[in-house]
From TrEMBL:
Keywords: Cell membrane, Membrane, Transmembrane, Transmembrane helix, Transport. It is a multi-pass membrane protein. Belongs to the auxin efflux carrier (TC 2.A.69) family. This is Malate permease. One of its GO terms (biological process) is transmembrane transport. GO terms for cellular component: plasma membrane. It comes from Pseudohongiella acticola. The keyword Cell membrane applies. It is found in: Cell membrane. The chain crosses the membrane at residues 57-77, 89-109, 121-145, 157-176, 188-208, 220-241, 247-270, 277-299. Its main location: membrane. Pfam families: Mem_trans. InterPro entries: Mem_transp_PIN-like (IPR004776), Na+/solute_symporter_sf (IPR038770).
Length: 302
């Protein structure tokens, strides 16, 4: 619960800073750019050399990708049927499929299921959510970015991906897999990566508004219901077909129930995809998870 408390404090700090005149209106955007160009690449370099795969642990690696495909399809269908704004659809395509499976996921899994559940949580995060962030999210953010009147070509999208700092860090991290960083490099990466969550959540708090733009309340409510309730229910249904052992199933469902990923929110806001809506989606999702995560833990059985 300490991580929930920290997130709330960061959120409150961001909200309070918005009331201080010395902070310009684009402070949230600037903070998000810092995350995308500094903190997120540091986190990638910190984690990627540790990524391991096992034939016995393919379920937590594959499940987030299956949920991503289902979620993206549901967002596109809902956006078309309910005539949502294109920026809102783009924001949901980036943020909704990805859960906060690292900063919240690790400590929550450890708190609920102990150290034995952590390997499954790490595989779900690193082989699923984390890789999707630096590949899928980059593609979708480039495609829906409203900065250009025309949709980007395949070459433009590829250029954005290849020049995305986190993607460069991903390639570098894979190239360095199996090697150890010098002590000073580890210290540098650890210190920079540690700034990601505080800076992103302060940025979210700075941009958080209870009053959404016209037509955004319904997408927000449906999105949070899907992410916090329906997505883990779908994961539970898929796992029933695969019949893994109990602890693996519990951890995978709990990871699927995590609120929207704050870093994916930074990517969406950085691409100018409905920033106020994204800030509300991430912030309100975190608050709602205070109720939904213990509920899923109770439903799954201790």
């Amino acid at each position: 619960m300490e991580n929930f408390a920290l997130i709330l404090i960061y959120l409150i700090i961001g909200t309070l800073l918005r009331r201080i005149r010395q902070f310009p209106v684009d402070t949230g955007t600037v903070l998000n750019q810092y995350v995308l160009f500094v903190a997120l690449p540091a986190l990638v370099l910190q984690k990627m050399p540790l990524l391991t795969f096992s034939s016995q642990l393919w379920i937590p690696a594959v499940m987030p990708w299956l949920l991503l495909l289902l979620t993206a399809g549901a967002v596109l269908l809902a956006g078309r049927l309910l005539h949502w704004d294109r920026n809102v659809v783009g924001a949901l395509m980036v943020v909704l499929p990805l859960g906060n499976t690292s900063f919240l996921g690790y400590p929550m899994v450890e708190a609920f299921y102990g150290d034995t559940g952590l390997p499954f949580a790490i595989i779900y995060d690193q082989a699923g959510s984390f890789l999707a962030l630096v590949t899928y999210a980059a593609i979708v953010a480039a495609w829906f970015n409203p900065a250009s009147d025309a949709r980007p070509s395949a070459s433009q999208i590829l250029r954005k991906i290849l020049l995305f700092p986190a993607f460069i860090a991903l390639l570098l991290g894979l190239a360095l897999k199996g090697t150890s960083y010098p002590p000073f490099m580890e210290l540098l990466l650890d210190s920079l990566a540690a700034t990601l969550v505080p800076v992103v959540m302060i940025a979210v708090g700075f941009q958080l508004r209870l009053k959404l733009e016209t037509g955004q309340t319904t997408p927000l409510m449906l999105a949070l219901g899907f992410k916090l309730l329906l997505m883990p229910a779908i994961a539970l249904g898929l796992l029933a077909l695969l019949q893994p052992h109990l602890l693996l199933a519990q951890v995978v469902v709990l990871q699927a129930a995590m609120p929207p990923m704050i870093t994916a929110g930074a990517v969406a806001i950085g691409a100018s995809l409905a920033p106020r809506f994204v800030a509300a989606l991430v912030g309100v999702g975190l608050l709602c998870s205070f109720v939904t995560l213990p509920l899923w833990f109770w439903l799954l059985g201790a």
